[in-house]
Amino acid sequence: MAQIKLSNLRHSYNPNPTGDDDYALKKIDLTWEDGGAYALLGPSGCGKSTLLNIISGLLVPSDGQVLFDDQDVTALPPAKRNIAQVFQFPVIYDTMTVYDNLAFPLRNRGRDEDIVKRRVTGIAEMLEVTEMLGTRAANLSPDNKQKISMGRGLVREDVNVVMFDEPLTVIDPHLKWKLRSKLKELHQRVKATMIYVTHDQTEALTFADQVVVMQDGEVVQIGTPVELFERPAHTFVGHFIGSPGMNVLPCDVKDGGAFFGGEQINLEGPVTGTGDGKAEVGIRPEFVSVSKEGTGLAAQVRKVADIGRHKVVEAVAHDSRIHAILEGEAPTAGDAVMLDFKQSQTRLYKDGWLASSPGEGA
């Protein structure tokens, strides 16, 4: 296994880039520690696959370095990097048995058959496919085929990193949770450095200890799932993570306070951002309370969605939509209500970036 460090990394598919807009990956400095579970999360086209291909050696970056345990591997081909990769579609040999599929990466490197047997049976036990070892891969269900593809990535002991490129895309929704749980369990047991690339927030947040959120070729935040949810560093992170995402409301900043539709909104703490950039208030729906009477922001309920474990209320105030997540009783469409924002979770953003700091005792 290895620590992976990306230093001053940039990449452009344009042979003569002249500005940031010409770069698919803008400057990235990032370190993944040995044995960690990481996710690259972002929408299609944000640069995830480009970054993955640079780490694997399929692409040489325009600028910067890729280091494995401080060794510069930037110019090394994939075969020299000791990387295992699991793709969207299972990469297995249908005519081989499950045992032979799992054994192939080891036999291809000349390992003794006693080592092959020990590793294959161990991985099969972890994947819960021991009873399938004699079965031809062509006869497996799609989820079991992907399990075997994962096993082929995990069976070697000499890999620096195991990379998963949206491995659950073709799996039926009711099986995704089971495979996500199995992958998390496998990481805890084998302690390999793993990087999981996905556009699905649920997959990223349930697998990774640290999530790297990307937008337009940039890393906008790195953090634990809790950190990304509770304190988004950028409004994009607030939008992208959560269902529904964070409420982002236009505001004016004056005298150190934020005003939405002329009404002052109590922020988590002092304003830290400077300049005259676009100012917005961010508050997650989980921290918005709704009442028929009392103080707060006057609004009218537009609709209520009952999704089982809770209700999502959409209200309108000063021509802006605001979502609230409620348990138990909820108002009905057309009701006049008061919205109250939990102050410790109400943040200011300028030009998308967090521009407030927690108050004392927060």
TrEMBL record:
UniProt-listed SUPFAM superfamilies: MOP-like (SSF50331), P-loop containing nucleoside triphosphate hydrolases (SSF52540)
InterPro entries, alphabetized: AAA+_ATPase (IPR003593), ABC_transporter-like_ATP-bd (IPR003439), ABC_transpr_FbpC (IPR015853), ABC_transpr_MalK/UgpC-like (IPR047641), Mo/tungstate-bd_C_term_dom (IPR008995), NA-bd_OB-fold (IPR012340), OB_MalK-like (IPR040582), P-loop_NTPase (IPR027417)
Keywords assigned by UniProt, alphabetized: ATP-binding, Cell membrane, Membrane, Nucleotide-binding, Transport
Record has ATP-binding as a keyword: yes
UniProt entry tagged with the keyword Mitochondrion: no
Entry's Gene Ontology molecular function annotations: ATP binding
Stored SMART domains: AAA
Residue span(s) of domain ABC transporter: 4-241
Recorded family membership: Belongs to the ABC transporter superfamily.
Name by which UniProt lists this protein: ABC transporter ATP-binding protein
